[in-house]
Amino acid sequence: MANVTANTARRGGLRVDIRVLGPIVALIALVIVGALMNANFLSYGNVTNVLARSAFIGIIAVGMTFVITAGGLDLSVGSMAAFIAGVMILVMNALIPTFGISWAVILLGMATSLIVGMAAGLFNGLLITKARIEAFIVTLGSMGIFRSLVTWLADGGTISLDFEMRELYRPVYYDGILGVAWPIIVFAVVAILGEIAMRHTSFGRHCAAIGSNEQVARFSAVHVDRVRAATYVLLGILVGLATIMYVPRLGSASSSTGVLWELEAIAAVIIGGTVLKGGFGRVWGTVVGVLILSLIGNILNLTDLVSPYLNGAIQGVIIILAVVLQRQKKADR
Amino acid sequence: MQFRHFIGATAVALALPVAAAAQTVIGVSIPAATHGWAGGMNFHTREAIERLEATYSDLDFVLATASDPGKQVNDIEDMVATRNIDALVVLPFESEPLTGPVKRVKESGAWVTVIDRGLSEDGIEDLYVAGDNPGFGRVAGEYFVEQMPDGGNIVVLRGIPTTIDNERVEAFQAAIEGSGIEILDMEHGNWNRDDAFTVMQDFLSKYPDIDAVWASDDDMAVGVLAAIDQADRSDEMWVLGGAGMKEMIKRLVDGDTDMVPANVTYPPSMAATAIELTALNYVSNAPVSGDFIIGSVLITPENAEKYYYPDSPF
What we know:
The structure holds two protein chains of two kinds. By secondary structure, chain A is mainly alpha-helical. Chain A has helices at 2-14, 18-37, 44-69, 77-99, 103-129, 135-153, 163-169, 171-174, 182-200, 202-212, 214-219, 224-250, 261-271, 283-302, 311-332, and strands at residues 158-160, 176-177, 180-181, 252-254.
């Protein structure tokens, strides 16, 4: 088994070709285009904005990389984020009478977020591994469940964090260390740990082994179900972490929170070079993918080149182009 | 809130089988509460139904909420087939797919009231109750002209690309024409807080000189305000939202007008208007057929109290 995965990894690593460079070239090209079109593009404020708003999708997409590498898929992350945000805000509001406006409430809220995320991930993971239902169907179902639950919790409206609490919690999104905002720091740490886990731990290698051939992995004494369920739990926890960063931004959650995040996260993973069918994952590629998607939106907002009606089309073209470049190289082989 | 909602729903459900024949049955079909405004609309609908059922014992209501046009068509077909409705009050999810089914209800002899989104064929409905979208844009535009007599630079956030949005923006542009107010940029924030936040951040990076923002919706105004606050440019500009979200109206009631000096109504309670008028047709001699357009009104701190519904989710 170790040989199988080592070979796969080496094949990807040795060929420094368009498959590896493609996303980076695209990212650099976007940065150059942006800088030429608007002088403010590279300003500190804009760079911070783009990186910080990428952090939610980015943190989720790192988790998604493991799920997809192990041959799975999770469509529920956007609804899950909305649901976690709703529960977290309700818990924090309920704790205010006991603890007052204090960091204790925020820490308990954060803990709630991580626990609910872990439970939601475990729910998906167990249904997929124990009940043996297709990941696509399970997460399609839980996507509906989480989305309805947050609508119900909000009574069709918006769940808002207590105003004073929000003022205290606000710095978690807007402030940071040495001018680097917290979401960016957390995203970077998650990405680095993810990259290490993917390349240098048995968990990462097991994910790739399961994704490339489940039978072989099972015969090689990999705990297939356990590893696979763990990828969903990990993703759930990361969704919780992303929500911790998201809530202080606007201090509210509603049924329109996190709509289509799942598709953005999946698109970022695939642009980054992870194979949708599983078997090979690249965490740093995912980070590049997330940045490419955010930059497209940012550049389209900063320029007047195309009608805003076409923003979605441009994103679509770039996603397809990125994947076409990778697939062509694969076919040549 | 949820609990009361639950009790309300149970009460309606329990009341249904008990209702005997010779009752007038009014079917109400509206979109589910998938965003703030729709949540408010659902709230006012339930409230109107409870009030009318308590007042008139011979009126009976069937309420169905749909999360997509297909489900709404099914709901309406079920109402006709199983409840034999005498009247249908419908807020079409989309005009095109609902036109046929609503027309069939009309052909079965039932009264039809359409709310907000017109059907794509004229003359089907007996009563049409709607908000005034061009008026919404015009009132907002006139407020900008009044507040900025010397002109200035503004940015505009638009909603989801729809006829509703187009009508509002066109009327707004017509209202500010020749006033010296220049629209630096317009972008779709999709009536969504997060999208509006992102768009406003980028507007703030792009334009060093913005005097005011037409957020055109209170959900978008929330995102816009957060972005302005982050950029620390609150002193430079003010924001006009719209639709009368209770948090925004509360600010006006409290006199907190530095950033958000006013609001423009597009009341989700129009569903209640439609249901009450339809009920009048059965309990009184008052003629109610025709068009009923609810004007968009400017809300200022002086009249804000009147538009503040603390119990509504919106």
